[in-house]
Each structure stands twice: as C-alpha cells, then as structure tokens.
Amino acid sequence: MARGKLRIYLGAAPGVGKTYAMLSEGARRLARGTDVVVGYVETHGRPKTAALLDGLEIVARKTVPYRGAEFSELDVAELLRRAPAVALIDELAHTNVPGSGHAKRWQDVEQVLDAGIDVITTVNIQHLESLNDVVEGITGVPQRETVPDEVVRRADQVELVDMAPESLRRRMAHGNIYAPEKVDAALSNYFRVGNLTALRELALLWLAGRVDDQLDSYRSAHDIGGTWEARERVVVALTGGPEGDTLLRRATRIAARTKGADLLAVHVARGDGLGGSRPRHLARQRETVEGLGGTYHQVVGEDVPRALLDFARAVNATQLVLGVSRRGRFAQLLRPGIGVTTTALSGSIDVHMVTHEQAHRGMRRSAADRGLSARRRIAAFAVALAGLPLLTVGLDLAGDVLTLPSDILFFLAAVVGVALIGGMWPALFTAFSGFLLLNWFFTPPIHRFTVSANENLIALAVFVLVGLGVSGVVDAAARRTREAAALGAEAATLSALAGNVLRGERALDSLLGRLRETFGLDAVTLLERAAPATPDSRGDPADWRVVATVGGRPCTSPGEGDTEIAVGEGLVLAIRGRPLPARDRRVLEAFAVQAAGALRQQRLQAEAEKARPLEAADRMRTALLNAVSHDLRTPLASAKAAVESLVNEEIAWTPDERAELLDTARLSLNRLDRLVVNLLDMSRLQAGVLGMAVRPLSLAELVPSALDDLGTGGVLIALDPDLPEVQADPALLERVLVNLLANAVRHSPPDEPVLVTASPIRDRVELRIADRGPGIPPGDRDRVFLPFQRLDDRDNHTGVGLGLALSRGLTEAMGGELIPEDTPGGGLTMILSLPTTPPATP
To answer: Which residues cross the membrane (predicted)?
Structure first.
C-alpha cells in the first residue's frame, strides 16, 4: 500500500488562519468529489472557522479519562476504519492525554499516512523542535508541545499562511482570535509587534531553507549536474594567501553587477591538513567578505578542484572566481594546476581566472614540506658511511653461505633503514653505494666493475630501482608522519583557542598568557607602532609602545624578540624565550589574529564608555541653555506681569480682578517651580547623583495615588490586586506615573478614557498606559524621549518637554524600562516595565 501524502499549513503564530486554510482546502477537494473527513479540528470559538465545517463529515472523537476528568482526542482507529481519501487533522504538535494510542499527534498522523490516507494538518513555527529555545528566548514563553523538524521536512507540501504583525494584532483587538477578556494580556505579552515580526522571519527563513533542500533533492534525483540559475550566486575560492584580497574585490564587483546576487567565499582545506594557508589572511578575508554582506565557508577535500566544484554545485552557484596559480611555469608543465583543472570540470558554471601579484612566483614551501631535519640527514649519511663497509665485510666473510640475491636483500635492507633515518637523499646515496659495492665485491667477475652474467646485471638494476622506490616511499611516509604529528598538536591548540572565547577587560592578557603557556615562552608582547615607520624604526624602542605583555621582561621593539608576527597595520606580536620553527607560524598567526581582535574590541568598548557621558553631558548642556533662554521665560514673564500689575497704584483693581492676577502669578510660579525641579532632576540623572530608596511597592496602591496627585479624570484603572510587588523608589515612581498619565490624558480625546492595565512577565511587571490620541510615528519614538521635545502637542506652552525624558531617566535609574508602542485601534501605549526583584548593582 502506498503511503499517504502529507500537506502542512505552517504559521508564524496562532490566529494567522491555518485552520481556516485547511478547512477551505478540504471543502475544495470535497467539491471536486474527493472523499474528505474531519479527523480533529479546533475552531477555538471562531464563527468563520466553524462555518467551514458545514458539509464536511466529522469523525467522532474518542474520550480518554485522566485523573478524574475526561478529554477528547483523535480517534485513530475509527479514522482508519472509515478509510477516507483525505483526513483533516488540526494541531500536529499536540500532546495527547496519557492513555491514548500515541504520546504525540504527529505519531497519530504517521499511522494514518502509513495506512495510505492523505493528511492535511497545521503547525506553528514555535512548535518546531529545533526552534523551540529560540522562540522561548524571543517571547519569554516556553513551548512544551513540539514536533521533530524531520516530520515537517518530510511533508509533500508545506504552505506558509502569512499575515503581517499589525494585521494579526488588529484581528486580535477585534476579538477574532481570543475572547475579549484575554485580548489585553495577549497583546501585551506574546502578540507584541517585535515578537510577531521575529516569528514571521523565523517561519520565512525555515521555509526558504526547505525550498532550497527541495530544489537540491530534485536536481539530485534527476541527475541534474548543471546549475539552475534561479538566483545568481558568485563563489570566490580563497587559498589563504595574500592574493585573496584581490579575488574578493573582483568577486564583489561581479556580484554587484547583478542585483540580489549572493556572494560566497570558500576555502578548501586539504584532508591531511598540509595546505599552505595562513590564518591571519583567512581571518582578514573572512571579515572582509562578511562586511560585504557575503558568507564564508570552509570545506575539507583531498582533491581541491573537485571539492571546490562540489561546493559550488551544492549551493547552485552560477559563477566561480579563482586566482591564477602561484606555481611556477615549470611546475605547471608537470601538473596543470587547480585553476586549469577546475575550468575543465566546471560544466555550466562560469569560471573567472583573476590575475594577481603573486601569480607565477612559485609556492613557498615550509621546512616540513622540503624534507626531514638536517640533523637526521647527517645521522643517516653517517650510518651509511659506517654501515656499508661493515655490511660488506660481514657478507664477504659469509660468502660461502650466501648467494648474490641474499647479498642484494641485505643491501636493500640497509637502504630502507637509512631512508627511515634520514629520508630520500641519504637512501639514494646508500643505494648507489650499495650498487657499487655489490658489483665490486659480490658480482662475478670479482673486484671489477663489469658483470659477466645478464641475470646478475638485471638483479643489480632491480636493486637500484627498488632502492630508489623504497627510499622515496619511506621518505614520504616519514615526512607525512612527522607532519601529521605536528599538525595534530597544532589542531589541538587551535581547537582549544577556538573553543574558549575570551571576553572582558582581561581578554587580551589571558590570550597572551595562553600563548606563553602553549609554547613555554619567557615573554609574549603585543607592540604597536608609536611613530611613523622609517627604514631604521624596526629596532628602535622609541618608535614602539607595549600594548599588552605577559611573562618576564617585555620586548620593547620587534627586533628584541626571538620571533615576531606582524598583525595588520602597526601591530607586531613579539615573543621571547626561544626561536620557534617555521611550522609553528600558523598557530602563532592564529593567536596574533585573536590578539588583534581582542585589542580592537577592548578599545572600542573604552571609546564607547568615554563618549557616552560626554555626549549626554553635551546634549544636556545644550538643552538646558535652550530651556533657560526660552521656555523658562514664559512662566517668569507671566508671574512678573501679574505682580507688577498688582503693585501698580494707578489702577484700581476690583477684588475679582486682584484674585485673578494672584491666581495667574501663583500658577506661573508653580509651573516655574516644576520646571526647575525637573531640570535639576535631569541634571542629577546626567551626573549620576540622583538619590533613591528602592523598596517593594504595590502598583495597585500607587497608581490611584498618582492619579489623585494629578487631579484629573478620564483615566480607567484595571489592575489586578494580586500583582507582584515591584522594586522602585515610591516618590520617583509616583512622579513617573504622574508624567505619563498627564501626557496620555493631554493627547487622548475627551470621550476616550486612558486605560491603565498591568501584567507580570517573568521577573518583571509591565504597566501599560494606553491612550486613543494621534500616536507617535515609529521614526519619532526615540526623539520623544529626548529632553525639550514636544512632538505635535496641542498646547505648546504647558512645559518644556521634560516629562517623558525625565520619566525614562527615572525609570532606568530604578532598573526599569519605558517603551512606546501603538495602541490597537489607534493611539499610543507607554509600557512601564519594572523588576519584581532588586536590580543588580553595576
């Protein structure tokens, strides 16, 4: 029996219309004559969704008793007995009640599919197992019901049911998703614009990845080796050499010619780790390509051209950028090189061969690539010079027992032994010397360099050839063994370096200390050029300054170190203790790159810390001058005019007129007093000297008190008396509430009361003050919290615009947050978030 087909409607959040789309599809198939039944659907009381059930056959649910209650679940047995062509089963990630046939509904669906029944189902992006923790980090709500990604990926069709966050919130506000009593809590928590936007992006990215997988699977299943230019993708191959910068610039220009083209950089590391790449070049080039909006990749392969083309075809690349070979012209005569081979095998991928300064200059080989150490070669020559005569004497004494083939085997053993000690060249010397000794002492005619018998000549020739071959193989094996051991240690060091990300003020010192411990050095110093470079400045300590050092006496210039590594412009890592071999430079370069990054991060943090108070102080100073020069004059002028009128004896004021003038003077002076107090508080906030007495407070008690101080109506308070207490200063929090309520009342229409609600969110409580005024455009929401800003106030003479700025400053001083947000249906909501536990002291 053929397995049924699975179709999934994927949504970013509840309420986007997945169940509605599923039922609509079921109705369409039923109208076409398909046998469709409803296995399980949750309408959640939504009338339009429930209306789609009319005309569809519904399989009765089974009742499962659990802990004294009864629950209804999908009746798989009844559905299989009914055996429809298509079954509609809602909520794929649902967890069944214990006692059901399976623990999860997706397992029920698998059983139905195995029976040959097509299934249409729904799932939200937050229920995918791989994204479960990501969604919890975004929304703060743990998802206990999950479905394995593989179950969804195996579906024959996955269709995204999409809806803009603002549209979904409007549906929520109109009561189309949840009951009215749940709307405010939902909008305040899970259904925030930021949450919905992030979930929507997750859904789109996940589905885009699945589309790419489907395309790759289709091409693989149909043996399509060529690329399909569904999207322009430019791949640039990096060798880890300095020419990579030139290749990246050229590849960027190629990608820029096609709007929307992807840029991918790839480095092919040989499986044996014997490539000549430099970590500092790769690190810089990786930063460059990521800064250009591209992506960096690294693959491992023995055959570099094939590995490169396999990667290009896997990402459906359309163009490949390679550098002209650095190998010399003679070397290219022997082997065509990676560029030529890649071009020959590229097929439908366009290959660009880019010239550069390093082209045809030859490959710089490390000491390890050139052979074994000089000490071992000398020892091998010594063994050959001493051993061959001794071997000859020994074989000559045993001449009555051994024949020429036996003598040849002994000399061949000597060749192998010398090759193991010193490599190829001592082994070649041993082979030719052995040939001469065998010919002179053991091949008739004796003591003459002639051979009488043809078979003896063939035997000697084979001895030389075998000696040459064995010496080459043994030499290569010995070198590779030595290189593998060194690279194993190097890989372990780099793995430890990559696995321990260093942060904080002491990151640079910790990194240098790890380098010193790794190689057993006396001192490691990071130097920076303090003066412009001159031909003689390399060894002059006056031209360098020590940025960081660990160990003993630091190096004051690069020339004082035993080994030095240049890092970028004007930075040198100098080490003292012992000269390090060339094969360790790759590890040193990796440490140097990390050290430069740590230094850069440390300085950026220091500059940011310095600039922050200076910028704030400058902004505050300018604002204070503006306020004193303009806004403070208005109440002062009003009070002065009223007082001067009262003391004018030439005018006879009536009692009512005198009372009105006094009231004007009083109101102006009170306003002036409030402005001065606000200005002083802003100054204290900027200076960090505002005194606070934080203690547990009840918002249910403090909000009405603030409203009384405000002395105005038009505010509807709906607070739960069981709200957790918040940590705040009562006097400062009351001033914040008065400012926020006054601002909301001032902008809200007279017939639309300001609504005050609150809800707990993890370790915080969010107080929401929602008005029905004109709101604030998203682009102006940061400006509204700057001092002396009045955006579209109806009355531009009621203050100097310190209310919201002071409110945010006081809130943040108490460890809270003040965030503006659109009110569903129009208006502005100020969200005051305060901790329920004491904020951590910095």
So the answer is: 378-397, 409-437, 457-478
Query: Would you list the domain boundaries of the chain?
Result: 6-221, 233-364, 372-478, 507-605, 632-687, 695-835
Cβ neighbours of residue 593 under 8 Å, at least 6 residues apart?
Answer: 279, 280, 283, 284, 567
The residues of the chain scoring below 50 in pLDDT are 229, 272-274, 330-331, 334, 363-370, 499-505, 535-537, 788, 790-800, 842
Do residues 42 and 31 make contact, with C-beta atoms less than 8 angstroms apart?
no
Which whole-number Å values give the CA distances from 60 to 27, 57, 69, in the listed order?
Answer: 19, 10, 19
Our measurement of the distance from residue 716's CA atom to the centroid of its chain's CA atoms, rounded to an integer in Å, reads: 44
Is 179 strand, coil or helix?
Answer: coil
Amino acid identity of residue 177, one-letter, is I
Whole-number Å distance between alpha carbons of 383 and 377: 10
Q: Tell me whether domains 6-221 and 233-364 share a fold.
A: yes
Could you give the CA distance from residue 808 to residue 800 in angstroms, rounded to a whole number?
A: 16
> Could you confirm whether domain 695-835 is CATH 3.30.360.10?
no
**At residue 576, what is the residue type?**
R
Does the domain spanning 6-221 belong to CATH 3.30.450.20? Answer: no
Are 357 and 245 spatial neighbours (Cβ–Cβ below 8 Å)? no
Q: 0.85 cut: is pTM over it?
A: no
pLDDT digits (tens, 9 = 90+) for 628-661: 555 566 677 778 888 888 888 778 888 888 888 8
Token reading at 163: 């809806």
Query: Pick from 17, 42, 14: which is nearest to 124 by CA?
Result: 14
> Whose CA is closest to 280, among 585, 621, 10?
585
Give the helix/strand (H/E) hosting 679: helix 655-687
Closest to 746 measured CA to CA, from 718, 715, 767:
715
Please enumerate in sequence order all residues whose Cβ is within 8 A of that of 102, keeping only pairs 6 or more positions apart, or say none. Answer: 76, 96, 108, 111
Q: Taking Cα atoms as reference points, which of 827, 832, 830, 822 lies closest to residue 166?
A: 822
The domain made up of 233-364 is a member of CATH 3.40.50.620: yes
